[in-house]
């Protein structure tokens, strides 16, 4: 019984670590804080992520500010989490939802996708 309890706690903790890692990545990404988002990635994915965000990092101030303002109108919402074969790998499904400017309503399903999270770090974005 103690072994079963330890296994359940371990699974819960790994699930929480995966969910927290994914949410931290998504929140930083939508805040255009790409350094923090990159820190939430595995070493292998960091290089790909940094290359993908390079052009944004080099934008002029006014254009970057406009994009940041637009991104502030969106929120990441994790919809499900699934462990892959008893490993430290999880598939984290999420939606990026638009927050309506004139009310507190959110439009669901603006973008939906999946992150592959390994040991609490984003390893891949499945589009």
Describe this protein's structure.
The chain is built from four helices and four strands, in the order ααααββββ. It has 127 residues and is α+β, with helices and mostly antiparallel strands. The chain has a single domain, classed as Nuclear Transport Factor 2, Chain: A, CATH 3.10.450. Strands 1-2-3-4 form a four-stranded antiparallel β-sheet. It is globular, with a radius of gyration of 17 Å. The termini are far apart. The N terminus is likely disordered.
Amount of helix: 40-55%
Overall CATH class: Alpha Beta
What is the arithmetic mean of pLDDT? Answer: 85
Q: In one word, what is the shape?
A: globular
Task: Please give a handful of descriptors for the protein shown.
single chain, 127 residues, alpha+beta, Nuclear Transport Factor 2, Chain: A, four-stranded antiparallel sheet, 4 strands, disordered N terminus
């Amino acid at each position: 019984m103690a072994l079963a309890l330890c296994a359940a706690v371990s699974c819960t903790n790994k699930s929480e670590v995966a969910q927290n890692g994914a949410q931290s990545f998504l929140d930083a990404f939508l805040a255009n804080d790409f350094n923090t988002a990159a820190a939430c990635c595995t070493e292998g994915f960091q290089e790909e992520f940094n290359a993908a965000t390079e052009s944004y990092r080099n934008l002029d101030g006014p254009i970057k500010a406009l994009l940041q303002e637009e991104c502030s109108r969106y929120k990441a919402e994790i919809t499900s989490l699934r462990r892959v074969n008893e490993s430290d790998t999880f598939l984290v499904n999420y939606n990026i939802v638009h927050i309506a400017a004139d009310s507190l309503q959110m439009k669901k399903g603006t973008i939906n996708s999946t992150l592959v999270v390994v040991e609490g770090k984003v390893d891949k974005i499945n589009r």
